[in-house]
Amino acid sequence: MEATPNTAGAAPATNAGNGSMFPPPPNDAAASSAAQTDDPKQNLNQVINSIQKTLGLLHQLYLTVSSFNVASQLPLLQRLNSLVLELDNMSKLADKCNIQVPLEVLNLIDDGKNPDEFTRDIINGCITKNQITKGKTDAFKSLRKHLLEELEQAFPDEVESYREIRALSAAESKRLSQAQSSQPNGDAKVKPEQ
């Protein structure tokens, strides 16, 4: 049996002391925990909705505190309890949402900078590493070509059989690649030999 706080839930709308009527926010914690699913998009949407609801609660709390008087003490306590419940709900929803944000992005945001700078820096770093890797690959291809030329002068028969084996291997790889791409899910079907 679960214990629920007295102040959250079906309390009547009260005057917050600033001339506006605020009904207490509904308790969505039970509804959202009942709808547990493994869909990452839905989990993310639930977290976003909880964040928006928390921001609304904070705004209501700000209005209540800014015009506080003795009559607004009960609404203030209700809003504080609602905020605590929603923060707890957000924490539970966030546990189901597996999103990893690089620490560098958070640091950029804290420094007041655009997080797109992080993306730009990562892309520029990838381009630089790609150029370095391409240079190494080209150097190995050049070395391989040079070695084959030297080996062909010294061992022409062995190099010819090596080239035949390489051609057969390349043809087999191409055939397997085409067989995999022809399957709707990418899995290759191996036909039994008859």
UniProtKB/TrEMBL annotation:
This is Mediator of RNA polymerase II transcription subunit 10. The keyword Transcription regulation applies. The keyword Mitochondrion does not apply. Its main location: nucleus. The lineage of its organism: Eukaryota, Viridiplantae, Streptophyta, Embryophyta, Tracheophyta. Residues 1-40, 173-194 are annotated as: Disordered. Pfam families: Med10. Component of the Mediator complex, a coactivator involved in the regulated transcription of nearly all RNA polymerase II-dependent genes. Mediator functions as a bridge to convey information from gene-specific regulatory proteins to the basal RNA polymerase II transcription machinery. Mediator is recruited to promoters by direct interactions with regulatory proteins and serves as a scaffold for the assembly of a functional preinitiation complex with RNA polymerase II and the general transcription factors. Component of the Mediator complex. InterPro entries: Mediator_Med10. Residues 1-19, 28-37 have a biased composition (Low complexity). It is found in: Nucleus.
